[in-house]
Amino acid sequence: MKHTSCEACFIFGGGIVKNRVKELRTAAGITQQQLAERVHVSARTIISLEKGQYNPSLLLAYRLAEQFGTSIEELYCLKENREEEDKRYENL
């Protein structure tokens, strides 16, 4: 599943990494509570992820990607974020 941009973001390694958790969850027609139960975290964790207020563990990132049938790279917009970071460094 390809996308054009990500709306939410979270802090990762000192930078901002966007994610598609809310987008994919709503497209799947599941609630935050249902997703939380499926990936073994609290609903508050999912809410924080969607708001860009929580830095997930690698295990949680993997579980979420698996839940949505996508890669961690796609779920967290890593290619897009890498390109944005490269542009910032070019302008220094």
What is the strand arrangement across the widest sheet? Answer: 1-2
Which structural class fits the helix and strand makeup?
mainly alpha
Averaged pLDDT: 81
What is the chains' assembly state? single chain
CATH architecture label name: Orthogonal Bundle
Could you state the CATH homologous superfamily? lambda repressor-like DNA-binding domains
Approximate strand percentage: 5-15%
Query: Uncertain regions: pLDDT < 50 for 5+ in a row?
Result: 1-5
> Could you state the order of secondary-structure elements as H and E?
EEHHHHHH
Task: Describe the secondary-structure layout.
Elements: E1 8-12, E2 15-19, H1 21-28, H2 32-39, H3 43-51, H4 58-68, H5 72-75, H6 78-90
What characteristics describe this protein?
92 residues; mainly alpha; 434 Repressor (Amino-terminal Domain); 2 strands
Structure explained in plain terms:
It is a single chain. The chain has 92 residues and is mainly alpha-helical. It has a single domain (8-90), classed as 434 Repressor (Amino-terminal Domain) (Orthogonal Bundle), CATH 1.10.260. The protein has helices spanning 21-28, 32-39, 43-51, 58-68, 72-75, 78-90; strands at residues 8-12, 15-19. A two-stranded antiparallel sheet has the order 1-2. Strand 1 and strand 2 form a beta hairpin. Helix 2 packs across helix 3. The N and C termini lie far apart (34 Å). Mean pLDDT is 81; it is low at 1-5.
